[in-house]
Design brief:
The protein contains 19 helices and 3 strands. With about 450 residues, the protein is mostly helical. Among the domains are: about 130 residues, Cytochrome Bc1 Complex, Chain D, domain 2; about 90 residues, Cytochrome Bc1 Complex, Chain D, domain 2 (Orthogonal Bundle); about 80 residues, Cytochrome c-like domain (Cytochrome Bc1 Complex, Chain D, domain 2). Strand 1 and strand 2 form a beta hairpin.
Length: about 450
């Protein structure tokens, strides 16, 4: 006799099966959760590093702008340091304790040129901005920082030293009291040229001392300025550095500088730093302001000389080109652009011109200025001379170079029809014709449909 499960037994079996499935699903879900947590825990260190890297990149991007605006003037384009100011691109600073670096930036350094930058100490920077600068010093890319400084037009004026021209130095020895002038020129080259510029003509941070107005001052006034400095300016007193004889010699040089030959203290050929962005800006400014006279590629025109030529680029330094653009050339059509452009704009143009040097031709081929008006209004006309043999392009009357004179006969070359029709008009016409033919086709099809007889029912099948 076969066993037949009752309804209650079947119900219990179903409940057991359901419970087993639920337990299996729970176990599987638990395993998935454990497995997911394991994967998350395994990837968590990598995620933390990536998140820290993203935060650091944001901080470094902000820090490069802060450096350009506040620090580059003393520490240089790429943290290399200027003069006595220490370099920031240094292994010693990269490994320096974070708190020590932060304290130096925030509070400055006593009895040095390093001021306090924290707002709590009277500076302009917040604690977060100072932490960004610390990150730049410890982890920054100084080449990228240099590009940021240049692109923002904040490249610092780097003080320089120079050696006197030996031939000219020997020449001034023949002047009255020439030995004093020779010693003064050497002193000026070693101590003063960094601020007061080549030949004492001044720079952006100090005025010219080779100037008639300065020569009008008395020896006592000049001696007092060199000895004690000038309050409220960068001119420091030199009493602790130079002897009284040295200061007197410099005063003599200032008062007699009109006797000293020009070029005795030449400016060094320091190239202007460039980036892709500054070259693009320089190209745009050159195209907008310079190409009309100097040609689109600097090849020159009848109005202005060529710039894209080997002789000019080889013999003219970046500083000289910048001075020409800034101050213009008196007595020529070259205007002064210093009152129309910023210094960074002019430097961008100089950098753009300088990038022609590797491919500059030995001899430039000046371009001719084109006629005015749009191209379609400049028709080519051929003029045939009356009795002469010469043909010229132009309009009006011509005079032959043969035996007599004659009236010019003008023949105008008519353009072909496909040169007149603009492609936009042609495209519009094609579109209109396509719509028209489509409507005509649809209309014909509609008429045909109406003309067909209606289908009749076959009654024979009833």
């Amino acid at each position: 006799m076969a066993f037949r499960p009752t309804g209650e037994t079947l119900m219990n079996l179903t409940q057991n099966r359901t419970r087993i499935i639920e337990v299996l699903i729970g176990i599987l879900a638990t395993q998935l959760i454990v497995f997911g947590l394991a994967i998350y825990m395994f990837n968590e260190p990598t995620r933390i590093v990536e998140a820290q890297g993203e935060i650091l990149n944001v901080q470094l991007d902000d820090a490069m702008t802060l450096y350009a605006q506040n620090c580059s003037v003393c520490h240089g384009l790429a943290g290399e340091g200027i003069g006595a100011t220490p370099a920031l691109d240094s292994d010693a600073l990269r490994t320096m304790d974070y708190n020590d670096l932060e304290k130096v930036i925030a509070r400055g350094r006593f009895n040095t040129a390093m001021p306090a930058w924290s707002k709590e100490d009277g500076g302009p920077l917040s604690d977060y901005q100072i932490s960004e600068l610390v990150a730049l010093i410890q982890s920054g890319d100084w080449i990228e920082t240099q590009d940021r400084v240049v692109n923002l037009g904040l490249a610092p004026l780097i003080p320089f030293t120079t050696d006197p021209n030996p031939a000219l130095l020997a020449e001034i020895g023949n002047l009255p009291d020439g030995a004093t002038l020779q010693a003064a020129v050497q002193l000026f080259a070693a101590n003063c040229v960094a601020c007061h510029g080549a030949d004492g003509l001044g720079t952006g941070i100090a005025p010219a001392v080779n100037d008639p107005l300065v020569r009008e001052k008395t020896a006592d006034e000049l001696n007092r300025t060199v000895t004690l400095g000038s309050p409220g300016t960068l001119m420091a007193g030199w009493a602790n550095v130079l002897t009284t004889e040295d200061i007197n010699a410099l005063v003599t040089l200032i008062q007699r500088w009109d006797e000293v030959p020009a070029g005795i203290l030449p400016a060094p050929n320091v190239p202007i730093p460039v980036t892709e962005e500054s070259l693009a800006l320089g190209g745009q400014l050159f195209s907008q302001n310079c190409s009309r006279c100097h040609g689109p590629e600097g090849q020159g025109t009848q109005r202005a000389p060529a710039l894209n030529v080997k002789s000019f680029l080889t013999d003219t330094s970046d500083l000289a080109i910048q001075q020409i653009v800034t101050q213009g050339v008196p007595g020529t059509a070259m205007p002064a652009w210093g009152d129309r452009m910023t210094e960074s704009d002019i430097q961008a143009i100089v950098g753009f011109v300088r990038q022609w040097e590797p491919t500059a031709p030995e001899v430039a081929t000046p371009t001719r200025g084109g006629g005015g008006g749009p191209p379609w209004l400049r028709n080519n006309t051929t003029t045939t001379q009356g009795t002469g043999q010469q043909s010229t392009t132009g309009q009006g009357q011509g005079q032959g170079q043969g035996q007599g004179q004659g009236q010019a006969a003008q023949t105008t070359t008519q353009p072909n029809w496909w040169e007149i029709i603009d492609w936009r008009i042609l495209l519009l016409a094609i579109g209109a014709l396509s719509i028209a033919f489509t409507l005509i086709f649809m209309g014909v099809e509609s008429l045909k449909a109406r003309a067909r007889p209606a289908p009749t029912e076959d009654k024979s099948q009833e």
